[in-house]
Automatic annotation (TrEMBL):
SUPFAM superfamilies: CoA-dependent acyltransferases (SSF52777). Residues 7-258 form the O-acyltransferase WSD1-like N-terminal domain. This is Diacylglycerol O-acyltransferase. The keyword Zinc does not apply. Coiled coil: none annotated. Pfam families: WS_DGAT_C (PF06974), WS_DGAT_cat (PF03007). It is an enzyme of class 2 (transferase). Pathway: Lipid metabolism; Glycerolipid metabolism; triacylglycerol biosynthesis. Signal peptide: none annotated. GO terms for molecular function: diacylglycerol O-acyltransferase activity; long-chain-alcohol O-fatty-acyltransferase activity.
Length: 452
């Protein structure tokens, strides 16, 4: 075990948040045009063959129950890893265990929901690929599942791209090599290490105070919270990126502001249609923010913070809702991702490994105290993806669903279209398709309000 093998603190937090009854993996459903009736079966063979040659897909997570091996050079980070976990290559890795070809399906989303319920095997590399041929023979889909401890959205994209048809991606920037470590720490570094530790404590207290201030007095939104059942339902919505730009040019804000405002308007419509009512409803949305440096040579390890904002679901005016979202996002950007309840992810860097193991279940149960709904953006390449020469036509990202929450929204832009991927607790939200239709209706409402 080396220090570079250890899970980053936030990865370790994700690893300890889930349970067998409440999976916390992320996913993506890609829909392909099939060039032949056997395209799905051929795709499954390709995925298994290519996965064998991708080192990142061979990595499993192993718990660490001893600080370090005395025969190895001293490493302060490794010595504090008791109760943590490490990534290591699985000597028994078999890609056929991770790639499954299913019987032809009539509804990709229904199958995806059923498969998202199943937790990943923690004793193996925590990822799966499920190939779903369609009954019409003209399409097939691939559902990728990754545990957040193995890969966040950007890293999952990199791993998935490695088993799709080859693409021309920019080369990563090399990371400078670290100097060799001796058996004992360099005494000249001790003052710096101590200053760093004190700084970490101060930073943790600062973040913790910010989280407490921004969550004080906030009550969960009942319609978006639920007793966790571990069941899953998924849905997908596709809208035209040009429509979003038309709204943005008239009403102002960014593309992301418009997409968040669409969620707010859809929630209003959905709550009113199901009889819950939207009056006085202002749910707290967590908007994750990636802190990863672009084109890094070692992208493993989550680098996340987030913004917290109130969605103006109770406002009947669509343009006013968009203006409220834009103002809140501007305020969040000015404050930075280290402030507010969204910064709770940064606290992971200041918690010892054993603390994550002992406190993970408690943090998981407390998620709904911080936010009601996750609205996250997952980057995708602008060029076309293919598998066995079969082009991808749609890509629906699926975010992990926090314990006690009923709905999570992920958004990706692909080939000029916006793809909303929805994940819900199937028992709490049996009418997820109604919310999906509300998203489409809200885009039309905004276009009409803008006079376009």
């Amino acid at each position: 075990m080396t220090a570079d093998d250890l899970l980053a603190p936030l990865d370790l937090a994700f690893w300890n948040l889930e349970s067998a009854e409440h999976p916390m993996h992320l996913g993506a459903l890609g829909v392909f045009t099939a060039q032949s009736p056997t395209a799905g079966a051929h795709a499954a063979d390709l995925l298994a063959a290519r996965a064998a040659g991708v080192p990142g897909l061979r990595m499993r997570i192993r718990d660490v129950w001893r600080p370090f091996d005395r025969s190895e050079p001293f490493d302060l980070r490794r010595s504090l890893a008791f109760g943590g976990a490490t990534r290591e290559a699985d000597p028994d890795f078999d890609p056929l265990h991770h790639v499954t070809l299913h019987a032809p399906a009539a509804d990709f989303q229904a199958e995806a929901g059923r498969l998202m319920e199943r937790p990943l095997e923690r004793g193996r590399p925590p990822w799966e690929a499920h190939v779903l041929p369609h009954r019409d023979g003209a399409r097939f889909a691939v559902l990728f599942k990754f545990h957040h401890a193995l890969a966040d959205g950007l890293r999952a994209l990199t791993l998935a791209a490695a088993i799709l048809d080859p693409m021309d991606l920019p080369a990563p920037r090399p990371r400078p090599a670290e100097p060799a470590r001796g058996v004992l720490p360099d005494v000249r570094r001790l003052p710096g290490l101590l200053r760093g530790a004190v700084s970490d404590v101060g930073r943790a207290l600062d973040i913790g105070a910010s989280v407490a201030v921004h969550t004080l007095g906030m009550c969960p939104t009942p319609a978006l919270t639920a007793a966790p059942t571990g069941t899953r339902r998924t849905a997908g919505v596709v809208i035209d990126l040009d429509d979003v730009h038309r709204i943005r040019k008239v009403a102002g804000g960014t593309v992301n502001d418009v997409l968040i405002a669409v969620v707010a308007g859809a929630l209003r419509r959905w709550l009113d249609e199901r009889g819950d009512g939207s009056e006085g409803v202002v749910p707290r949305a967590l908007i994750p923010v990636s802190k990863r440096r672009p084109r890094t040579a070692h992208p493993q390890g989550n680098r996340l913070s987030g913004y917290l904002m109130r969605l103006p679901v109770d406002d009947p005016d669509p343009l006013r809702r968009l203006d409220t979202v834009r103002t809140a996002m501007d305020r969040n950007k000015d404050a930075g991702p280290g402030r507010g309840a969204g910064a709770v992810a940064l606290l992971a860097d200041h918690v010892p490994a054993l603390g994550h193991r002992l406190g993970g279940p408690l943090v998981g149960h407390a998620a709904r105290l911080w936010f009601d709904i996750l609205v996250t953006s997952v980057p995708l390449p602008s060029f076309g993806l293919k598998l066995g020469g079969n082009p991808v036509t749609e890509v629906f990202p699926y975010a992990p669903l926090a314990r006690g929450q009923a709905l999570a929204v992920a958004v990706s832009t692909y080939r000029g279209r916006i793809h909303y991927g929805l994940v819900a607790d199937a028992e709490a939200v049996p009418d997820l398709d109604r919310f999906a239709r509300a998203l489409t209706a809200e885009v039309e409402t905004l276009i009409t309000a803008c006079g376009s």
